């Protein structure tokens, strides 16, 4: 069933053009009368409204407020060729998803529509505690951002072949989940998935853990011990934190991978292997090879395909889905019925950078559910460092303007000059980080990039 979009603009030609542009993908209606538009919203369910900022003598900001009173879940994109950038910012403060300037860039418009509708779905899941849409879950991995969709596509290509894979990314990004997904989705799922953390086992014991030993090999070896490689035979072995493996053991691992066989410590009988190897690290293996801390031949043997997992701060579009997932998980574990987050708490969570990535987010939600006294998580239920990073859009945009412009007035500036100043201010506030700047301004990254180029802000 198509999602429903309503266009409210006093120019009939614009309504017709936008209907033509969007009608193949969405169920689109339009009106030049804002009062009629509000009546339509009261009678029908709309997911998105494209709203002109100035509709004849009617102020679109007031119409926005009425839309949100009828149904707060409706996403609104403001279209403006009037007023100033301040009016557009005010619209975002009052609940608009983003704003676009006329004449409209149709590619940017289509991107904004898709992003707004995806954001609505994510918020709906968080607010109403529904089951996560299966389109956003792949073998237990949650995501709807373009970067995660590419990861899912790559896993799908790799699952039924035995190509060696190295998974890279910051700590807490879910490298083990990806390794398990490759195993569980593929033809080796009937075999064992065996994980060993190369950084967690002392060097003196790691070889024994990997390859096992025979009875009597050393004092205390009272029985044969099966190594991880043998236990993973016909399945998958996951060598986590491979960058921490001692160089002396790397040579033996290379031989095992080349010959597909090994001899347990103290043994004489070779163990033949039919196994898939997946490795992971948060370190830069190429740099380690250059520094002589990782064997180059082992690097090329392992790194046939590399999967680089994005940090959580680089896929903020997935945050609402992850909020919902962990909320449901910890409600079940703690037998609680927390339904969602206050607006202030959600603002804090959306603005935080998550240096510990998904693992840290999981811990934050677990703690918040535990501490919540009511059925909604409040700001005081969040860790101090999350509360300290509150990025309320109203305060942030005001701060951006104030920090950059000081007492300088925007009165008398053209829309383009005012927009240039705001984008420049937001870039300064975010230290040039474009993803964060786009999120703050409520526009797509591509839209921000185009505006940066148009206004010569690259310099």
Automatic annotation (TrEMBL):
<dbReference type="InterPro" id="IPR011006">
    <property type="entry name" value="CheY-like_superfamily"/>
</dbReference>
<dbReference type="Pfam" id="PF00158">
    <property type="entry name" value="Sigma54_activat"/>
</dbReference>
<keyword id="KW-0804">Transcription</keyword>
<dbReference type="InterPro" id="IPR027417">
    <property type="entry name" value="P-loop_NTPase"/>
</dbReference>
<dbReference type="InterPro" id="IPR002078">
    <property type="entry name" value="Sigma_54_int"/>
</dbReference>
<dbReference type="InterPro" id="IPR025944">
    <property type="entry name" value="Sigma_54_int_dom_CS"/>
</dbReference>
<keyword id="KW-0805">Transcription regulation</keyword>
<feature type="domain" description="Sigma-54 factor interaction">
    <location>
        <begin position="141"/>
        <end position="370"/>
    </location>
</feature>
<dbReference type="GO" id="GO:0000160">
    <property type="term" value="P:phosphorelay signal transduction system"/>
</dbReference>
<dbReference type="InterPro" id="IPR009057">
    <property type="entry name" value="Homeodomain-like_sf"/>
</dbReference>
<keyword id="KW-0238">DNA-binding</keyword>
<dbReference type="Pfam" id="PF00072">
    <property type="entry name" value="Response_reg"/>
</dbReference>
<dbReference type="InterPro" id="IPR002197">
    <property type="entry name" value="HTH_Fis"/>
</dbReference>
<dbReference type="GO" id="GO:0005524">
    <property type="term" value="F:ATP binding"/>
</dbReference>
<feature type="domain" description="Response regulatory">
    <location>
        <begin position="4"/>
        <end position="117"/>
    </location>
</feature>
<dbReference type="InterPro" id="IPR058031">
    <property type="entry name" value="AAA_lid_NorR"/>
</dbReference>
<keyword id="KW-0547">Nucleotide-binding</keyword>
<dbReference type="InterPro" id="IPR001789">
    <property type="entry name" value="Sig_transdc_resp-reg_receiver"/>
</dbReference>
<dbReference type="GO" id="GO:0006355">
    <property type="term" value="P:regulation of DNA-templated transcription"/>
</dbReference>
<feature type="modified residue" description="4-aspartylphosphate">
    <location>
        <position position="52"/>
    </location>
</feature>
<dbReference type="Pfam" id="PF25601">
    <property type="entry name" value="AAA_lid_14"/>
</dbReference>
<keyword id="KW-0067">ATP-binding</keyword>
<keyword id="KW-0597">Phosphoprotein</keyword>
<dbReference type="InterPro" id="IPR025662">
    <property type="entry name" value="Sigma_54_int_dom_ATP-bd_1"/>
</dbReference>
<dbReference type="Pfam" id="PF02954">
    <property type="entry name" value="HTH_8"/>
</dbReference>
<dbReference type="InterPro" id="IPR025943">
    <property type="entry name" value="Sigma_54_int_dom_ATP-bd_2"/>
</dbReference>
<protein>
    <recommendedName>
        <fullName>Stage 0 sporulation protein A homolog</fullName>
    </recommendedName>
</protein>
<comment type="function">
    <text>May play the central regulatory role in sporulation. It may be an element of the effector pathway responsible for the activation of sporulation genes in response to nutritional stress. Spo0A may act in concert with spo0H (a sigma factor) to control the expression of some genes that are critical to the sporulation process.</text>
</comment>
<dbReference type="GO" id="GO:0043565">
    <property type="term" value="F:sequence-specific DNA binding"/>
</dbReference>
<dbReference type="InterPro" id="IPR003593">
    <property type="entry name" value="AAA+_ATPase"/>
</dbReference>
């Amino acid at each position: 069933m198509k999602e429903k979009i309503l266009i409210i603009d006093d120019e009939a030609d614009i309504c017709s053009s936008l209907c033509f542009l969007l009608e193949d993908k969405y169920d689109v209606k339009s009106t030049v009368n804002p009062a009629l538009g509000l009546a339509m919203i009261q009678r029908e369910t709309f997911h998105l409204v494209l709203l002109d900022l100035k509709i004849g003598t009617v102020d679109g900001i007031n119409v926005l407020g009425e839309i949100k009173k009828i149904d707060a879940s409706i996403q609104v994109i403001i279209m403006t060729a009037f007023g100033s950038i301040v009016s557009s910012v005010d619209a975002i403060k009052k609940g608009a998803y983003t704003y676009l300037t006329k004449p409209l860039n149709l590619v940017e418009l289509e991107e904004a529509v898709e992003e707004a509708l995806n954001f609505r779905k994510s918020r709906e899941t968080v607010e109403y505690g529904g089951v996560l849409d299966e389109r956003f879950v792949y073998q237990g991995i949650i995501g709807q951002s373009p970067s995660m969709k590419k990861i899912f596509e790559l896993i799908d290509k790799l699952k039924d072949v035995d190509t060696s894979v190295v998974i890279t990314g910051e700590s807490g990004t879910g490298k083990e989940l990806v390794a398990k997904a490759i195993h569980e989705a593929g033809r080796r799922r009937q075999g064992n998935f065996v994980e060993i953390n190369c950084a967690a086992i002392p060097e003196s014991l790691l070889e024994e853990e990997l390859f096992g030993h025979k009875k009597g090999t050393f004092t205390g070896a009272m029985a044969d011990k099966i190594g991880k490689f043998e236990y993973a035979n016909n399945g998958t072995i996951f060598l986590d934190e491979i960058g921490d493996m001692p160089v002396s053991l790397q040579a033996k691992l290379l031989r095992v991978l080349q010959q597909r066989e090994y001899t347990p410590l103290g043994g004489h009988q070779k163990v033949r292997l039919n196994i898939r190897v997946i490795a992971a690290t948060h370190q830069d293996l190429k740099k380690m090879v250059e520094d002589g801390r990782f064997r180059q031949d082992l690097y090329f043997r392992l790194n046939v395909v590399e999967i680089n997992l994005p940090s959580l701060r680089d896929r903020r579009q997935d945050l609402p889905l992850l909020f919902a997932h962990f909320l449901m998980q910890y409600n079940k574990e703690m037998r609680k019925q927390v339904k969602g987050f206050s607006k202030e708490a959600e603002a804090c969570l959306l603005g935080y950078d998550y240096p510990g990535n998904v693992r840290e987010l999981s811990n934050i939600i677990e703690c918040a559910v535990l501490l919540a006294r009511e059925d909604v998580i409040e700001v005081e239920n969040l860790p101090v460092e999350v509360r300290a990073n509150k990025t309320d859009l109203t305060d942030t945009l005001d701060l951006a303007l104030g920090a950059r412009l000081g007492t300088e007035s925007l009165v008398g500036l053209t829309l383009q000059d005012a927009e240039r100043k705001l984008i420049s201010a937001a870039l300064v506030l975010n230290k040039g980080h474009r993803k964060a700047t786009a999120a703050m301004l409520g526009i797509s990254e591509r839209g921000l990039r185009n505006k940066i180029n148009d206004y010569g802000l690259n310099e």
